[in-house]
Hints:
Elements: H1 2-7, E1 9-21, E2 41-53, E3 63-72, H2 76-79, E4 90-101, E5 107-115, H3 135-139, E6 144-153, E7 158-165, E8 179-187, E9 192-202, E10 211-222, E11 227-238, E12 248-260, E13 265-276, E14 297-308, E15 314-325, E16 336-347
Antiparallel strand pairs: 1-2, 1-16, 2-3, 3-4, 4-5, 5-6, 6-7, 7-8, 8-9, 9-10, 10-11, 11-12, 12-13, 13-14, 14-15, 15-16
Amino acid sequence: TMKFLQQTGIDGYVASSYFYNFNQPGNHENTGRGFDTRADEFMANKLVVRIGRPVDYSAFDWLAGYSAKLILGQDAEFTQAAGLSLGPQGDLFEANVTVNVPIGSGLKVMLGKCGTPMGYESTFTEENFNWSGGNQWTFVEPFTHTGVMLSYQLTTELELKAMVMNGWDVVADNNHGKSFMGTATYTLNDKTSMALTGFGGPEQDNNSSNWRKGADFWIDNKFSPKVEGVVQLDYGAEDGVDANGKKAEWFGLGGWLVYTFNDKWNVATRADYLKDGDGVRTSGTPSLAPFAPNGGQELCSVTLTFNYKPVEGLKLSPELRWDHSSLNTAFDGHDTQVTVGLGAVYSY
């Protein structure tokens, strides 16, 4: 037991929040949101427990480790993958084993359930620049995959990952085909990094012929010790899902600008745009605060978040967010939604 504890890292956090919606929706839902779903209600968002033994690349040694992440709280229902549930307020978000095979500079092989390598914002949104997740994270990116992933550090700057999995956000496969994803992450220096992800595979129930495919790209640049900027692009398409059984497409663009005053204060602005021309990504989703079924819409949002760390381990995040849709009644009878609130997270 002592040896296990010495070799295992344990960390996580507790998060809670409150957000007020100026539309005062009768169903108390912030439409189109993932975690900050409840309007004018205090939320017990999540307890996150992460344990694991990381594995480094090695050209000479076989190495083994694991990772497990548990989410308990109101947010867990949104991240759950089909086929694995701990109840409506529990999610085994990640559970996998990783082995380093001494081939070349080291080949890491991960088998099990893991968070997606796609996209800039983390599913653990409390660790992002903004408290609420952007429209790209909410609507056009997966949360988890169950399968096998190969990782290889081709050069000091370039890491490659390739994955074969059951699909997007499923543990029990919903068809007879496998899905694929590959990511190349390039770290130019300590100021600039970028990643390109491509994906493809069947994601529809009992249908292995219609594929979802596309790409995601982001670039992060630290212009100075105080100023950081990020841009992210998303494109996706899926066969046989529009109203006429034809291919549907979607496009997303997002940007972040962060200014750090000191080690206690920073301010983060995010602006994003999502065109879901056929309504396949935003109609009836997300699961907790859905849009009404629709034949397509354009979404945009602007978010302003202040992050304050008064003591070690604690972060307070007051946030103001404006959402707009090309549909006049998208947000509980309005085309616009404005929310203001506060998130609090304590990390251990």
